[in-house]
Every structure is written in structure tokens, then in C-alpha cells.
Amino acid sequence: MDGDRAPLRELIELKKSFGALLLLDEAHAVGVIGPNGRGLAAAENLDEDVDVQMGTLSKALGTSGGYICGSRSLIEWLINQARSFIYSTAPPAGIAAAALAAVDFLASPEGEERKLLLWKRIRLMQELLPRNELNEKAGAANSAIFPWIVGNEQAALDLTSALQSEGFLVPAIRYPSVAKGAARLRITVTASHEEDQIRSLCQTIERLSDVPL
User: Fold this and answer.
1) N vs C: which end of the chain shows fewer Cβ within 10 Å?
2) Is the dihedral of CA 40, 42, 45, 51 positive or negative?
3) Confidence (pTM)
4) How confident is the model over 5-58, as pLDDT tens digits?
């Protein structure tokens, strides 16, 4: 929820100790982390130690659906035994083609350039996002997701509404997605955001957070 990175090396050590299988959800990492946006396992050179990688096509790849990468025997087992897959409708050909085009783009020099531009925007957000008592580490995010802790659920909704009235779409995340009393805004940075937009958002959050809601 907060864009944290899993302690992957430690999890792999546990996996090896207990003879377990490790499934890694790369939904927020693909397109953002690692060489050509290949994800956390690739970033830490641990692909060979992860048994199953899964993710979504609906975030950085810009389409819909999801994927699972694993051994041939695992994939065959899922095709024949996974009830939710068996009784689902296949994605339209256009969606599959768009997903393949997005993967090809990520693997290209242009895709890597887009990822580097994203990280330039992320670093700007790290620098400018204001700090307060609940957000002492507001700029410490190491992904494209930045949480802004509000606490009270209604206050988070009010802050989201106030931001929207000024032209910013920042969703409020509240119970049961997070613990009660730990409501937050969830800011997502993209390569398409201009520097001035990020500066303006941070200034607006600072101004509105000083006003009782």
C-alpha cells in the first residue's frame, strides 16, 4: 500500500531453509524498478531464486489483466486446475496485443529512457513532499508510490476532496484497506507528470494540511 519493497533476500533465505516455494507479486515494480523495468527480482539479480512471479497488466503496462511466470509444469497445472482461470473469459486479442507492445517498449532503449525520467520525477517528489508529525519520512519512498498519512478517515476524504477541487486526483485509502485510524492519501508519480505539477501538488498538500479539516 505504501510502495515498500519486500526484503527479498531474507525471504529467499527463509524459502531455502524450509524448502518452500516463493511467489513474488511484482505488480507495482514492473515498469518502475530494475533494468528495463523488469521488477524487484531483476533489480536484485535474484530471478533464479524466485519460483513464481506474478503481476498486473493494468498499471505500468497500461492495459488490463495479469500474468504469472513460472516453470512449465506450474503453468500447465494452473491452466488445467486453477478454477478462477478455467471459468474466466479470455482477454480480447487487442488487449493481448497492447500488453505485448507495452512489454516490447519496456525492453527498448526508449522504454529505459522513460523509466529514468520517471525516477527523476520520483526524486523530485522525495525532495519536495512536506514533512509533519505523521509524515516524518514522507520523502523516503523508494517506488512511484508516496503515502501521505492523515489518520482520521473523514479527514482523509476531506483532504482528497479539497485537492480534487484544485485539480489534483489523489485517492484516499482507508479502513479496511489500511488499519483504522491510519487513513492516508496515496500519491502515484508517473513519467508523464511535469515538474511544475509535482511542485504544485506538494505546495498544495502543505497548505491544505495546515488547515483544520
Assistant:
1) N
2) positive
3) 0.88
4) 999 999 999 999 999 999 999 999 999 999 999 999 999 999 999 999 999 999
Give tens-digit pLDDT for 158-174. Answer: 999 999 999 999 999 99
Distance CA 195, CA 107 (A): 26
DSSP conformation letters of 68-94: EE--HHHHHHHHHH-HHHHTSPPPPHH
Q: What is the CA radius of gyration of the chain?
A: 19
- Residue 6 carries which DSSP code? P
Question: Using an 8 Å Cβ cutoff, are 113 and 154 in contact?
Answer: no
Q: Is the peptide bond before 176 cis (omega within 30 degrees of 0)?
A: yes
Q: Three-state SS for 23?
A: strand
User: Between helices 153-165 and 195-209, what is the axis angle to 10°?
Assistant: 130
Q: Quick check: 127 and 139 in contact, CB under 8 A?
A: yes
C-alpha dist (Å) from residue 18 to 14, 25, 87, 183: 6, 20, 34, 36
Residue 8, judged by CB atoms within 10 A of its CB (0-12, 13-18, 19+), counts as middle
Nearest Cα neighbor of 65 from 99, 36, 40 is 99
- Distance, in Å, from the CA atom of 138 to the CA atom of 146, rounded to the nearest integer, reads 7
